[in-house]
Each structure stands twice: as C-alpha cells, then as structure tokens.
C-alpha cells in the first residue's frame, strides 16, 4: 500500500528542478555565494508579491521575527532600561514566536485564541495591552490571516508572524502591520531547500535597520553602526525561492481546491470538526481538523499509511522553557482544549483526489 505523505517536497522539486539547477550553475560560475544578485532579485520579487516596499532576506524565520522586533524597539527607543518591551501574542503558536520575543529582550504577554479559528482573540489582546506594551504579534496560522482591525488601533506597532500565510489576504487586504516576518522552512507554501526567512515592511527606516542587523551592523565592509548578527539569506536558497515564487499563486490555488475537496469528503463524519471556510483568502498551509481521541486517531491513520501532523500539541505557556512567565494549566482554556484535539491532515499542492479519498475513508472508518 502506497503511503499518503503529510507533505510531498519531491513533487514540488520536480516542478522547479530545471530552473534551480540552472540557477545553481549560474551562482557557481560567478562565485556569488553571499549576498549575490539572486538575493537582491528575490527580495525585489517577494516584496512585489507581498504588496510591500521592502523585503530583507534572512537566515531563518526565527531570526526574521527577532530582528523585526529589535528594529521596532530600536525605532521607538525601546531598547534602553525601563522601556516598554512587553509583547502581546497568542498562546497558540509555534515556540519560535515566543523565543524571538525573549531573544529580542522582550517579555511575551500571552492571550487566548478565538475558539472558531484558533487565531488571536482581539478583545483579549486589547485588554492585555497597556503602557508597557512595546509590540503586538498576531500569528497568521494554518494559511489564514489573523483579524487585525482592532489591533491596528491599539497604539503599539504590530509585527505580523506570517510564516504560514504566504499569499493570504483578509477582507481583500494582505499584510497590514508595521512589519512582518516570514519563514521559508522547506514545508512552507514557499519553502527553501533548508532554512531561510525574510522581513517585509513598508518602512524605509525599519528595512535599513534590519539590513544592518543581518550583516554585523554594517552597510559598508568593516564599518559597523550598530551591534548586529550574521543572518543573511543564502544565495543558493534565494535561487530556489525565486523559482518557486513564480509558481506560488498556482500552488496556493491547488491548495484551495484540495481544501474544498476535503470539506466535501469529510462532511458528516461523527465528532470531526472541520476548519471554517474562508473562500479565496485562505492559502491552506495546513488543513487542521479537530477530533476526539486525537492521538489514537493519528496512530490508526499511521497504521493505514496516512501521515499526519499536530500543530501544536503543547501551548507556549505549558512549555518548560517558558515556566518563568508564571502560567499553568487552565490559564488559556481555548488553546489548551484545541491542543488535545487538533490534527493536521496531508496537504500539499500536488495531493491527488485519490489520496484525499483514502484519508476521508480512513477517518470515516475510525470515527464512524
């Protein structure tokens, strides 16, 4: 029996192999391995794709979050003693969001999420925002943009965690905050062949600060304006991303078609909660259902050759690394309840109807 993979990176590679090989040959011939022309080309193209003025390529998505937040703190003078460095963010996210806040010198202020889509609850975020708040980070999970209307009016700058929402819009609008950070980890809608990330912004000053920070605080070799890092986007990864970016709109449409097919195939299965529809605005990085006895269901699916994921089984506040925040079980009940039931089904642009029918038939057998 052929396995249904959770994600099929080989299928995506087959579509871009010729362009990637040609690009690699070009880089090898020129020896432009660091900050080569392909990096500038990708930055220009991804900024245009995102509707932004600037894209700054970085080594990974976690660095993108950290450097974006550091740039915000720097711009607001919030990198000195006693400054406002609390950062409001949802408890339901990958740990990198909170990691980046701590690494940037901030303190994560966690809030619960909306029970329907598991995105940041705007009312709770507003209640948690005060004089000590230096930024707000809504996390765009699973391919859907988080609600932003009220967050943008609260005062502190908004840093969007856009690692799972490449190409998504909400109410006809894409990224709307002061700055956004994304990851090009291989499994993302736009994925590299290793680690890579970027910051997107409309601010000349924020973009310049991130560019300085990614390259040891330097615009000119051996002259360092600020304390920086080494987090440059690798030129070979830029080649891969340029080739894939040309296909991203089409791949996102294929994901939408697959999500619509799942909605039909999975309808009526007892105990199964489907994700809320979002028309053409969702890019379905993940197709996340909620089921009873989640771990048992996942194990049964694995026995039937169907690979799944869990995004994420332990909320940030229950991670030992963030015990210092002082939270415990019951503090964020929506995120905690979801963590025990969420299950990510196989989802990638090239998934076939036959593969999806196998997933649906298996779930019906297990839960029916």
TrEMBL record:
Gene3D superfamilies: Aspartate Aminotransferase, domain 1, Type I PLP-dependent aspartate aminotransferase-like (Major domain). The keyword Transferase applies. Pfam families: DegT_DnrJ_EryC1 (PF01041). One of its GO terms (molecular function) is transaminase activity. Keywords: Aminotransferase, Pyridoxal phosphate, Transferase. The keyword Calcium does not apply. Coiled coil: none annotated. Belongs to the DegT/DnrJ/EryC1 family. This is DegT/DnrJ/EryC1/StrS family aminotransferase.
